[in-house]
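Continuing the series of single-chain predictions for the mutant panel. This is the parent chain; the variants come on the following pages.
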Amino acid sequence: MPMRRLAALALALAAVPAAASAQSTDADARILFETRLRSETVDQQGFIEQAHALTVRTRLGWRSPTADGLQLLVEGEGVAVLDDRYSAPVDPVPGRPAVADGETLELNRAQVRWTGLSDTEVTLGRQRLTVGNSRFVGNVGWRQNEQTFDAVRVASTALKPLTLTWVFADRVQRPLGHEHAQGVWRGDIHLLQAETDTPVGRLSGFGLSVDLDNAAAFSSTTVGARLTRTRLVSGDRSLTWSAEYAVQTDAGANPANYSLDFQAVAVGLLSPRWSVGAGYERFDGDGLSGFQTPLGTGHGFLGWSDVITTTPPFGVRDLFLRGHVGVPVGSRTLRLAAEAHAFHDADGDFALGRELDLSATLPVDSHWSVELKAAHFDGDHPAFGDADKGWLTLEYRY
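Parent structure:
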């Protein structure tokens, strides 16, 4: 059965009264509701005017009780535009920078979850996928329109100490929206990941095959591994570090022919109230193609400005510092965070730019939160111009 029909099947099953039979319990049943109002401003080199976007995203859904190991979930998502002085994905405005949040109304999730096998969970239908740190497969949660997948996902701890995850998807609902020419990707996506604890940290390895019918340039095969560890060193202070490596080759109908790699290392010191860290990331390029992560959550890895959203043919090297501190505000904690980035080509021959990111986040109560966030990109290369972006977000989660 094509994956695009699985979401419809899950939605239909959600209406079956048997889901709330006498064998079920109401402990895990709930209404799903959240809304996010965001103001985004963009001042970008090469554009006559600034972009001003005021959008509100609302999600409403229902998660059923679990009966005989089955649980149903259905959720709709809508994005309304209150201030449209920007270039939206399907409504470009000449002279204004782009903001990737357009008006849309769609089925966000419609899935069946089954836990009838010991230590195994199977999820079928339109679903949110976040694998590992979301670098290679993620939901792009920063954007108002979330990325979801028509997929089957199997996660199991039956082969202890391994945790295995297998995913097959044939459709990706991207943040651009279903009305955009590239808003929905179709094809065959396979993922296999294995994780386990070792004496030197948590080790995960994965293989990701992407063969897209309507975006062949992003078809690829990627194999990689990531090692992470947090170790208590003194009092409530811990040392944390991570290392990651992956190799990517062209696949399917991709017209390119390449074999590129990705490397990342990071080290940090953290406590319950603050953290500091430094890191290095390198996306390879061979002059014609760059190492890409088309299904991942890009925001936050190469700075918050998203000026560098796809890897250029000459690659990207990023040296960064980051940290945060929690400041008591009454009974709540204000979280202040900052990042600084220095970007070069993959071989370090020339500079691409520098970036400074700042944010302040305050949970008002158990449901409401407010965030003020800014990114300043100072470009050193014609492909990446200067950009200043700012966001003010008010969010409610039920």
